[in-house]
Structure formats: C-alpha cells, structure tokens
Amino acid sequence: xxxxxxxxxxPGRFGGYGGQFVPETLVPCLQELDEARLAAAADPSxxxxxxxxxxxxxxxxxxxxxxxxxxxxxAPRARLYLKREDLNHTGSHKINNCLGQILLAVRMGKxxxxxxxxxxxxxxATATVCALAGLECVVxxxxxxxxxxxxxxxxMRLLGAQVVTVTAGSATLKDATSEAIRDWVTNVKGTxxxxxxxxxxxxxxxxxxxxxxxxxxxxxxxxxAKEGRLPDRVIxxxxxxxxxxxxxxxFLDDPVGLFGVEAAGSGLGHSQALGxxxxxxxxxxxxxxxxxxxxxxIPAHSVAAGLDxxxxxxxxxxxxDSARADYRGVDDAAALAACAEVSRxxxxxxxxxxxxxxxxxxxxxxxxxxxxxxxxxxxxxxRGDKDLAGLTEATP
Amino acid sequence: xxxxxxxxxxxxxxxxxxxxxxxxxxxxxxxxTSRRLLAAAAAAGCRLVEIGVPFSDPVADGPAIQLAxxxxxxxxxxxxxxxxxxxxxxxxxxxxxxxxxxxNPVLAYGPERFGAACxxxxxxxVIVPDLPLEEAAxxxxxxxxxxxxxxxxxxxxxxxxxxxxxxxxxxxxxYLVSTTGVTGAGVGQDIAGYAARVRxxxxxxxxxxxxxxxxxxxxxxxxxxxxxxxxxxxxxLVAGAATPDAAVAAxxxxxxxxxxxxxxxHRDSG
Lengths: 396, 270
What we know:
The complex is a heterodimer of chains A (about 400) and B (about 270). Helices cover about 45% and strands about 20% of the residues of chain A. Chain A is of the alpha/beta class.
C-alpha cells in the first residue's frame, strides 16, 4: 500500500507509516527534539523527576477499578475493569504527556509553548504544566469546540493560557492543529509545540506514546496483582490514539486482544480514519486518513470533540495492517447512552471520548457466548464534566 | 542533471536577468480568470510562473493563500486541473510553469501518473512544501526520470550540513524561504547574509520567496537573489478586486511594476 516514492525505513517509521512530512523550517527543531528525547531517556534524573511529578502532582498511579454494577448489567460472568485515567489531575490521561514534554521543553531552553486542543483536555493539561513551569502558553482551538467545551476554555484562561479561536476550515481539531503548526513555524526558535496525541511528524508519535506508556505498565501490573492473569482484551477509544497506545503498549507482546474504538459519528459524518479512510499525509505523518479521491482531507464529525479528527497516529495504522489490533466504530447515540448508563450505575461520569470505548465493551459483551467469562480492561481516558452542557441536552 | 528548469534558470542568470516569479493559485478565483492572470504575467515579462495546487490543509501558508486554496477547491480545482492549466501556460503563453502543492494530492493522484502528466504538460518543476530532504528522494528520482526538477526549499533554520545535502540533491533552482514563518507574513532580515551562507554550499541559482509584498521589497531581495517569488501579495490583489477584469488589471499592473523595478537592480554577486 505504501507508494513507492515513500521511504519505508528510518527512524519514526511504523511499518512504513509515520515520517517527517513538514516544511523544512521545522526539520532542524524536530531533530533537536529527537536528540533531547534520547538524551532524557538515557538520563536517570529525567525519569526520576517525571516519576515524582506523576505521583505527587498528577496523582499516579491511577486505580484499576472493578466495575461490578456494569458487570451485572452487561454480562454477569464477565470481569470488567476500568483504568481510571479520569482521576488524573486535570481529568484525563493528557497530563502524562504534558508533564513529560514540559520537562523536555525546559531542558531545551524553550520559553514559550503552543498546543492544539479539541475537547480542551489537552489544552487544559498544557496550560497546567505551563503554569507549573512558568512558561508562556498559547492554545489553538477550533471555534466549534470553543463553543461546545466552554468549561475547558474557562479553565485554560484561569490557568494563564491564551486561547486562540480558529475559524478556518471545519473549525475543529484538524484546523487547530494546522494553526498550531503555523505558529510553530513562525516562532520556531524559542517555542516548543506540545502536540497532544500520537500524531504529527517524528519524533512525536513515539515521544507521546512513551509518555503515555505508563498507563499500560500500571494496568498490566495491576491486573496481574488483582486477577493473577492477563486480560482477554483491552479497549480504548481512538482519535489521534494516545490513550489507546498508552494502554496497548503494556500488552503488545502478550496474547491479549486490543480493540481501538473510533467515532462512527452520525448522519453528519464520522471520524473513522482507520475504519473508513486510506493512507495519506496530514500534519507531518503518513497514516490512515479521511480523504476524498483527490487527496483533499474530509472534515471529521463526532459528538466527542476529542475524537473529531480525520487522521490517526501512524503506529495505529501499522497495528491495523499487521492485525495486532482491531479497530471498530461506535456512533454518537451509543456513546451518549453508555455515558449515561455508566454515570448512573457506577457514579462515574466518563468523557464522551471514553464513552465510545465503554459502548463498544457493552456491545461486544452482548454478542458473546453467555457462558464465557472474559476479563476486560477499558481505558477510561477522561472524565465527562466538560461535556455536561451537551449531555444534559441529550439525556432525558 | 539538465532539466528544462535548469536550462531556463541558467539561461536567465547568464543573461543577467533576475527572475520575477508570480505564484498564482490554480482556479482562483476561477479557471477562466486563472488563465487570464497567467497571460497578464507573461505580458509583464515573467518567464517562470508558479501554479499553486490547492489543498485543504496548507500548513505552510498564511491567510491569503489559505483563502485562495479554499475558494479554488470550492470552484472544483484539482491536481489534474492544475496540470492542465500549467500545460496551457506552457503551450499558449510560452511560460515555464512550476507546480507548487502539498504531498497528499500527489499521492492520491499516483506519483508515477503525476510525473508523466507533468512531463506531458511541459511542467518544468514541482515544489512540495511538506516534503523535506529526507523524505524527498523517491519523488525526486521519479520526476527526474520525466525530466522534471523537484525544487527544494531551504529555511533560515537549515544548518550547514543540510544546506550541503540540499546542494548535492537539488536541480533547477533552490527556493530560499525568506523567514521563519508562513507565506505572506513579511520578508526576513538580512537576506544578503542568508543568501551568502547558502551560496557557500550550493551553486544553484537562488530564488527567494515568502513575504515579498511590494516592488520595494522585491528590489531589496533582488540585490542578493537570482529570482524573487511573489505569492500572497497577488492572491490579496485578486481577493480585493471587485471583478475578474479588475483582478487581471491589478495583478498585471503589479507585476509590470515589479519587473521594471527589479530590472534596474544591479547585482555584484551571483
């Protein structure tokens, strides 16, 4: 499938996906970032500093919680665990990556941070670490998302970040990302771009995955401690794919089913780059992409702003092609229903993004042999407080 | 390797002429007006012309070219349409066209088919702003098989090692991005020092673009460059024109002013 003109080797390649398709202006600073990343990986003091912040500031490790009321409702013989990334400081897994990247930015001597955000979870996490490090912070956010995720916009501003509303294109995450890249091209010297997912040019897909891998390391140790065995399957939602790769990476070499859940949206459209797209180049990497026959990018649609992206991380493209992970779609209505059900049964309000993974878990359990007793982990990547305005409209 | 682009730019340099290269987004504001804008460029004495292939997500471009791309796509422009327009420019207007566009439409069209179409239409070069050196070898080789140059961009952030590598790989001319930034944001400082630094690593003619917004800045850049590329300023003139006639008159008049001004520039180096 890889066109013959593209390299299949080199750093940052996942089975031919990935690469560094960016304007020349940015290449030297991507190389600088890659060197800083490798130097930090070889420096025990970096790991120690990150571990301390993860524990004392972000609240790690997050619990692996057995959701017994969901088990009763969905499949009484199943054992269902939720990895509680929603309990992190700032309310999602995004803080894991932001803490790592801000430490790198400080080491590189950067004084200004730019970021893109969809749901606002990454924007809030970025604004938070910038406050912690005392760095200037500019967050680009599509106009549509500014409207539907208003609480997060207010949080970012309270944290001292400048939130720039992007009106171009579909005015969602795709366009916010393009605008963040344009800012970075312009202010490349003193600025670091904290990309929020496992997307973009090398080294970002690897860098972000490595900072999120703590989810999978913890989950693996926790399930072994609680159940004495590995799970049968692990389920996570996929927009760019960072929470999914974070938890998948703990189980890649194990006989564990990995399921990534994309947003099947509604009649207005979808966000299924892996399920319904084909490979192409957007925002610096070669990966599955929603595009038309002319190679123009098709705007995504999802009720979950954080999944509303037409591309996906290149490692997911490789996991799909190599059949190591399965990618499925869940539509807006099923995600909203799962959000309401989990809220009422467990007293946990999941983010609409994570609700896609929960809905798929329910759907899969319903189809299963009733005598099976599967052990399942769902990555509950974030909390749903930010979605309250939309949820109260949608819930009877 | 000798390509049409190499012969053209070397010919201009040997004749002591600084090239004024207009960038025009294909199909903006519409196909018919695009053709007339190209004719106006030819009439103003331009020899090379860049034809922009619109893309939905142009990360290297500022607002003027973003808007032009959006409008051109809405009006139905495609990569194939841009190649056709380039063919028209070459055949009917005697221009030497260079296409500038992002990678994904080329991948979707099929790189091999694209190379053949470029050669058939008389396209002399292709500029792909999201295809830096390390990613470019495959498309560069494919295009060269068709006698078409892949034109490389270098930036103020490009260090000596990369400049030397570009110098070895590039054919035609080297595109100097004048500033760290997107198109249309203004010309960088110290173009003289920048161009001199690049020339120590690369013998190709140097064409400077990004942010050259008027005749005065074109003249300033022309003192140190073999060519000046003007894009956003032209799309802004089109955007501000009430009618296609007004757009053609504005762009034609602007290019005549710039070519006349640049023709008067004396260069010591080169």
